[in-house]
Amino acid sequence: MIFNNFLSAWNVFLLAAFALAVLIGAVANKTNFCTMGAVSDWVNIGDKGRFRAWLLAIAIALIGVVMFEYFGWVKADGAFPPYRSGNLIWAENLLGGLLFGIGMTLASGCGNRTLVRFGAGNLKSIFVLFIIGLIAYFMVNPFPGSDQTLYSSLFLPWAQHLSINLGASQDLGSLLVGSDKALGARMITGLLIATAILIYVFKDARFAQNNDNLLSGIVVGLAVLGAWLVTSIIGVNADGEVLALRDYYNEWDFLADDEQLKPALGAPLSPQSYTFINPLGQALGFFANGPARSNLTFGIVAVFGLILGSFLWAMISKSFRIEWFANFSDFITHAIGAVLMGFGGVLGLGCTIGQGITGVSTLALGSFITLLSIVLGSALTMKVQYYKLVYEEEASFGKALVASMADLRLLPNSLRKLDKV
After folding, report:
1. Assign residue 408 a region: left if phi > 0, alpha if psi is -120 to 50, beta otherwise?
2. Which residues pair with 3 in a beta bridge?
């Protein structure tokens, strides 16, 4: 998709992000697609239907990205955020994933699900989204009158010493055969992993009979792939040379005549797909600094699109319902969850969609670490909550945690002080 001017190319870039997000929002609302709910169903009642839908989305996005990248249609190496950075921030991936998994459980849904619920009338979500956005914003932007961010104050001093330099890239293809031969290795590795996922997904014959789970997995996976494709192939014809949007931005002073059309930042013009925590911070900053076209990003319009898609389906299905906190305890629990999601989503470079699907589709090692950590954090939180509910005063947090870890086979059963429930 080659355009003769930057503005036309940028418009399509943003409109594609918005349109696909509307589709995700509508389908997620209709099918009750929820990654936190997927973990909850699995842990609490042994139902893996929604978990398989999540895995189906991962497999579809992964197959598409490695295939399209092989033919030059997707450019994940220069993505925003830089999933494949050669600097593996494993500690941040691990801690961020755990914090996010705990947070999304306490707040009754991940960033994607919170946006969907907001579009369907859940006013609790406004509060949760605001807190996530506030934390996410100050994780990457300095406090007023300061050069310090939440990240530089709380995490950088120790995290920078734990990162591992893996060379040019941390994707599994590069790690297996080196960056020079990574393209083919990515495709083979990605197809093997995706095939294994699909075998597991369809091993349960009941899954294929559930239209909602099939629809959500297919649509979310294709939407993530579609965003990768569109943001990778859009270019601007600059005097006979085709430049990607970010490259054009970097040469703006030499190529463009109108400074007013220039976006505020160049990095968000890179190839990318859906993630919903850092964009909430971007959206908060967009309104706080005075809405201006130059500040629009893929992530911001995706947030708006997801809300609109959910709202439209709620209107069509007559399922729009106003909801608020049940009590003060519910309010505090959601607030804590929102804070943890804000920290975890930025620290781990994404959420259950941003790392769990978009990041994993690039085969980045850090994305797999974050995804597994999110699932672990969420599952442990649910288990602890259940033990506390069943045993009440008898179950201290420590006893409930040990029992939960034993249930998940992370500790030997001999250490538990509470009988399994």
Report:
1. alpha
2. 236
The total number of structural domains in the chain stands at 1
The amino acid at 298: F
- 351-376 residue pLDDT tens: 999 999 999 999 999 999 999 999 99
Evaluate whether residue 421 is within a structural domain. no
Q: Which of 3-17, 125-139, 188-202, 254-268 has the lowest mean pLDDT?
A: 254-268
CA dihedral 340, 139, 331, 102 (to 10 degrees): -10
Tokens describing residue 10: 């940028």
Q: Judge whether 420 lies within some domain.
A: no
| pLDDT of res. 370 | 97
Q: Which of 338, 419, 360, 371 is nearest to 64 (CA)?
A: 360
Residue 250 counted as domain residue: yes
Amino acid at 61: A
409 Rama sector, left if φ>0, alpha if ψ -120 to 50, beta otherwise: left
| pTM for the whole structure | 0.95
Say how far apart CA 40 and CA 44 lie, in whole Å. 6
**What SS3 state is found at 85?**
coil
The CA distance from 72 to 328, in Å, is: 53
User: Could you tell me which of 214, 27, 41 has the C-alpha nearest to residue 113?
Assistant: 27
Read off the pLDDT of residues 301-315 as tens digits, 9 standing for 90 and up. 999 999 999 999 999
Q: What is the extent of the structural domain holding 69?
A: 2-415
Nearest to 110 by CA among 55, 40, 43: 40
- How far, in Å, CA of 405 to CA of 390, rounded? 16
What is d(CA 6, CA 52) in angstroms, rounded to the nearest whole number?
A: 41
The Cα angle at residue 170 between residues 169 and 175, in degrees rounded to 5: 95
Q: What number of other Cβ atoms are within 10 A of residue 273's Cβ?
A: 32
Domain assignment present for residue 142? The answer is yes
Is residue 410 scored above 80 in pLDDT? yes
Instruction: Indicate the SS3 state at residue 235.
Output: strand
Q: Rounded to an integer, what distance in angstroms lies between the CA atom of residue 282 and that of residue 345? A: 13
Statement: residue 61 has pLDDT above 80: yes
Q: Which pLDDT belongs to residue 96?
A: 97
Kindly report, residue by residue over 285-304, the tens digit of the pLDDT.
999 887 888 899 999 999 99
